[in-house]
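Internal ticket #5521
Category: modeling
Description: The requester needs a full-assembly model to guide mutagenesis choices. All entity lines are attached below as received. Residue total reported by intake: 629.
Assigned to: D.W.
Attached entities:
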Amino acid sequence: MMDFVLTEEQEMLRDMIRDFATNELKPVAAKIDEDGRIPQEIIEKIGEIGVFGAAFPEEYGGSGFGEVGYCLVQEEMGAACMSTATMIGAHCSIGLNSILIGGSEEMKLKYLPDLTSGKKIAAFALTEPGAGSDAFNLITKAEQDGDEWVINGEKLWITNGPFADVFAVYARTKRGITAFVVEKGTPGFTVGADEKKMGIKGSRTSSLTFDNVRVPKENMIGRDGRGFLTAMKTLDAGRLGLGAACLGAMKEFLRLSVAYAKERKQFSQPIANFQTIQNIIAEMAIMVYTTESLVYRTANDYDKETMLSRQSAMVKWVASENLDKCADMAMTIFAGMGYSKEMPIERMYRDSRINKIFEGTNEIQLGIIARDNLKRHGTM
Amino acid sequence: MNILVCISRVPDTASRILIGSDSKTIDPAGIKYVVNPYDEFGLEEALRLRTKNGGEVTAVTVGTAASTDVMRTALAMGADKVVLIKSENEPTDSFYVAKNIAELAKEISPDLILCGRQSVDYDSFQMTSVLAELLDMPSVSIVSALTVDSDKLTAERDIEGGKETVEAPLPCIISAQKGLNEPRYPKLPDIMKAKRKAIEERDAIPSEERVTISEMSILSKQRVGTILSDSDEDIAELVRLLHEDAKVI
């Protein structure tokens, strides 16, 4: 049978991250949202305690906690500050993972230790102005010229773009889609202005422009023409971490809602006494439990290398849909106070919606799940 | 410099405490146990002194077999060695704890022993003083700043309305107060490595318990604050209370 009990070290990890998130992150989450950036010292502290290496093997500077450990981290981060969870997700789940999943041993040893320690920050560059959900039709071009590749094109909505050091860039070659490492400061490579967003404002997003950007051939991640597979495998991991961050935010919505419902009095009694409010709280609790079960079951499968794309697609869909519902329900319980910036509900509500959009829209996830199911004649 | 750090395993302060059916013990069900927060200051100070002066940091706890969790935390924070002195029941008598730690201290002859000013579970404030007596060492309590030289230490103590600075020769026992330092978060790779390190276990020596708990009870929570409305009379009442009762204006 399955065993869903955390090991002693997983519990220590969760407790430590919870302490960190509660003491260092939550008190500044509103300021992060307002300033539109995470303070550099917080990013450094996150690096120092080893968060960026949580999921990854020790030989690359990680701590070997695997995907379950990484999800424990992202759950706590998502509860405290979704902007920070997004920054970590873009760096670890999809930036760094592109190299871990697709790269040669030599490339991993060159880049990963600096990324797992947080000395350098990574970003994942797949989306383009004309290629969002239809990522396969990206048009950024890479052409070989002797020992170098020359990249031309534009990328859009790149999380961590404004300050990342290492970019996993997906471009089209004669053989198909191929991934390359492009480092900050490479001539011809420019980063656009910070996008102004509805939520996760502290997570910085920008466009990238490639104007005859030359990279040595050693910077090719994996084989020529195999980049799309790397991108899809990388996103499988990303969707799982995203689910964990959503789970953390849902738990926070539930905690805050219950506390407020017991405190807030109307008709001479706490609103928690009313069945209308109790029904909302029950539904939120059901969604938390469902999502938690799904996230950790799937993360466990990921660590055993038995997870399938459709499963991470389901995690992403369930977690982000449930989070969106929890956000709305919390707003219902807090009502006017929830709408005011005095309470974190307003920020968390704005921060929630993006999870149904990025790392593959939820509509694309349904497509992945449906096609897979049709192939299997309706069996799981 | 070799340092011994005494660690107590206590319920997390956020835990809801319930009394067991014997009315003498805390019901451990559903309680999360942590390193006593004041002991964390002691451990952090020991780790900083080791970075500066070299040597070894040994952490010790006297407790039941369940105490391995706080021992792993001590290892993850950076202790070189941890010793669990296993007792059958959760120890509540300060003399019993001190007696057992004293036996270990005699073996390893530390230059400095660091403890928390109190353990936030039973709050006896006695262990360090008893330990100092058993080892015939000077002890300095409630220390909020510490400088250690080769053969003596200088410590700043919090006293009512002020501070005092004291000196004492080594070896010496210090009890740590909040403000001594900011304890580190254990790093992820160190949490993983702590799993592979050994916890030395030995049985507690039988020692008489000089103080035993005969009964425990929980005070019913009463609202101590006063809530006033924003009406004109209540605002006047608030001013009067602040002026006459609280004497802050």
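Resolution: model delivered.
Comment from assignee: The mean pLDDT of chain A is 96.
Ticket closed.
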